[in-house]
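Hi everyone,

Forwarding the result from last night's run.
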Amino acid sequence: MNNFEIKNTDCHAALAMTKNAQSGRSMIEMLGVLAIIGVLSVGGIAGYSKAMMKYRINKTIEQITLIAGNVRAFWGPQKNYIGVHCYGGNCKASGCNGHSGVNADGIPISDDNGCPIVKKAKIFPDDMITVTDGKIMSITNPFGGGVMLGTQDKAKDGDNQAFKIEYYQLPQEACIELATHDWSNAGASIIIINDSYVSKTPADLDIATQYCSDGDDNDIWLYFDVDANSTYWTEQLGER
């Protein structure tokens, strides 16, 4: 009897040890799986963020090209760009370069009574503008910043012979991409980075990297139908 009891006890002990060993392996495996899931999640989030940044940059390039084409198509017959004015969206606290007026949400609005000509001409895609009572109240880019459209008197001989498109509150990566993009097909030959550096397009990568600051508060101003080799612009090129 005693021998049987001893052997039986040994079997129970061996079985318990086996269960514990199995339980230990399962926990290690579980931790390994969780670690892999964590790594994949972090990688997935990073990949998603990178893809979204690329999408928004490409969307911005498409927008600017479309806006410039629409301006030319509508104003081309009159041989100048009189009436190309629309200021809206979220821009710096400086007051959108002096253009005042805000809507109920505190967003700077047009100083041109809701940009009636620009709205009528359908210059901006619908997903960029907020319209209230038939007036453009704000214009935003894919990064949430404001967009401005206007003429440039000194960019070329004769008043209102050129126009500019300004994009505000861009992240550094987008600022660099837009500054170094070849805008020749869209007709832009001058770019100003953060009101600090004037360059012919495309800007040099080193210059763009230097003047596109960290964070999400970068501005890009593009000038269309200007003579980049004129005395006015050759005197402007470089650090401001």
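The chain has a mean pLDDT of 78.

Cheers,
N.
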